[in-house]
Amino acid sequence: MKKLSLYISIALAGLFMGSCSEDFKDWADPQTNPQEDAITIPGFTATAAQAIDFASVTTDSVNTFSLSSAALPEGFTLGNARIELTPQGVENATKTTVNTSLDGKGAVADLASVVESAYGKRPTARTFDAQVYVNAIKEGQAVLIDAGKINLVMTPKAPFIDAAYYLVGDMFTTDDVNGWNTISDKQKFKHSDKDVYEDPIFTITFETTKADQYWKIIPKANVDAGNTDASAAGVVGPKVDGEDSMTGSLTNSDAKAGKIAKAGKYKLTLDMMDYSYTIEEVNYDPFIYFIGSTDGWKSSDQKLALVDEAKGVYTGYVYVADPNEAGLQFKFQRVAGSWDNEINAGTFNTFSDAATPNENGNIGVNAGEGVYYFDVNLGEGTIKATKVKTMGIIGQFNGWSSDAVMTWNAEEYCFEATKVGVTADGWKFRVNGGWDINLGGSLNNLTAGGDNITVAGNTVKLYPTRKTNDKIYCTVE
Questions:
Q1: Which residues pair with 151 in a beta bridge?
Q2: Which of 154, 83, 164 is nearest to 121 (CA)?
Q3: Nearest to 153 by CA among 121, 123, 127
Q4: Of 103, 105, 100, 41, nearest in space to 72 by CA
Q5: In 3D, which of 461, 473, 477 has the Cα closest to residue 421?
Q6: Do residues 261 and 278 touch, judged by C-beta distance below 8 A?
Q7: Residue 303 — φ and ψ, nearest 5°?
Q8: Structure confidence by residue, pLDDT tens digits, 264-322
Q9: pTM confidence score
Q10: Contacts of 127 (CB under 8 A, 6+ apart)
């Protein structure tokens, strides 16, 4: 049996000399030396426990190490065991302390949190440097003992999540195509650019034209292997054949086919972290309404118009400003003035160009105050904001060669140009000197990619935000 008496006595001698003027503290708050003053005891060491796979752990705590046996001098007890965990292979890694029992048991919740914070939730074995410390305590005084460093291997608890999924079923079947074993881009679920274990949400919108349409889900691994058989191993679906519930659980073991009971437009959302699904019937409103910092969150006059009823695509122009210095932040409302079922940053999995997610679920733009052209796809969860750096007029009057640049009038919410001299033989509006975003057609109803405008005049005002009208329109004088 190993004797700790000599080592502890020497350590305590130094401790008492350094603290003789201090009152003793109680057991719950013992005095301790700085951690760098920890002593080592020959033969008193920690041994790593077996690798931990949290998927197989059924208790609240789990063994991380064991200590060699030791006999303490009279009046001493061991306590306050803990491990300092440092992830291996992580740049600028930080240490995290987890308290344990003397037999090395740590709380599963604490240990799992350390792994996920360092490496994420992907179920891969991760190795940590684990420094084990224990206190020898007598009469409220403590000596820190370094029990050595071990490797602690831990694997997060998470199900298998593939990189992508495809919907198959009756709704994709035509005279020429079998919707059960043919894969196309329109059948692929949408997903953000994050790791699937950080964002396990996948979405797809689709339309059924008949009642009682059955479906299953094919993982990317099967597709890559050339196996699109809906009855193959790994296919995902409900646990009950013909399940027509709008919410439910999924399995990739002997998956059955779900059922859409009636014809319509639907959005199917998968949460692959808990293998669940939600089906929503989709009815897109004619407009969605901008509300945010521009008007101090008080007005929802500016709006985007529905341009693709099947996918829920809205486009239009919005003036984004920040007069109250609260940040260029906003949301969209489905009904002007109502926060029911609001459209916020959580609605989207992809933000592009100047669009960004912001605090408190708000959406933002990162290119400063100004007018933006928005392309919002609610079905696929994408939002793009293009800053209108220039709104130009181009046509026969200037040889279709260069833009007559307009000026933004924030009082009237319009772009304006004077002495421009447009002619009746054709002209259009375009954004940033290119044709990707342009307007044409009737003065009272300008549309994306519309026909050339055939009205002559010198003063042109363009009202793009639908603030006072459901249409984008212009005046020519």
A1: 129
A2: 154
A3: 127
A4: 41
A5: 477
A6: no
A7: -150, 155
A8: 989 999 999 999 999 998 889 999 999 999 999 999 999 999 999 878 999 999 999 99
A9: 0.63
A10: 87, 88, 89, 151, 152, 153
pLDDT at residue 28 greater than cutoff 50 = no
Residue matched to tokens 């998968």: 270
Instruction: Give yes or no for residue 219 having a pLDDT over 60.
Output: yes
Q: Please name which of 69, 72, 60 lies closest in space to residue 11, comparing C-alpha atoms.
A: 72
In Å, how far from its chain's centre is CA 207? 26
Q: Which of 238, 290, 231, 276 is nearest to 260 (CA)?
A: 238
Q: Is the pLDDT of residue 19 over 90?
A: no
pLDDT digits (tens, 9 = 90+) for 84-142: 999 999 988 999 999 999 999 999 999 999 999 999 999 999 999 999 999 988 888 88
The one-letter amino acid at 282: V
Identify the weakest region by mean pLDDT among 2-16, 111-125, 211-225, 428-442: 2-16
Q: What is the 3-state secondary structure (H, E, C) of the chain?
A: CCECHHHHHHHHHHHHHHCCCCCCCCCCCCECCCHHHCECCCCCCEEECCCEEHHHCCCCEEECEEECCCECCCCCEEEEEEEEEEECCCCCCCCEEEEECCCCEEEHHHHHHHHHHHHCCCCCCEEEEEEEEEEEEECCEEEEEEEEEEEEEEECCCCCCCCCEEEEEHHHCCCCCCCCCCCCHHHECECCCCCCCCCCEEEEEEEECCCCEEEEEEEHHHHHCCCCCCCCCCCEECCCCCECCCEEECECCCCCCEEECCCEEEEEEEECCCCEEEEEECCCCCEEEEEEHHHCCCCCCCEEEEEECCCCEEEEEEEECCCCCCCCEEEEECCCCCCCCCECHHHCCEEEECEEECHHHCEEECCCCEEEEEEEECCCCEEEEEECCCEEEEEHHHCCCCCEECEEECCCCEEEECCCCECCCCEEEEECCCCCCEEEEECCEEEECCCCECCCECCEEEECCCCCCCCEEEEEC
Give the whole-number percent of the chain exceeding pLDDT 90: 79
pLDDT band at 6 (very low <50, low <70, confident <90, very high): low
**Distance (Å, rounded) from C-alpha 154 to C-alpha 87?**
11
Q: Look up residue 147 and give its two tokens.
A: 């029990």
**Residue 53: what are its φ and ψ, rounded to 5°?**
-110, 105
- Dist CA 154 CA 64 (whole Å): 10
pLDDT of residue 56: 94
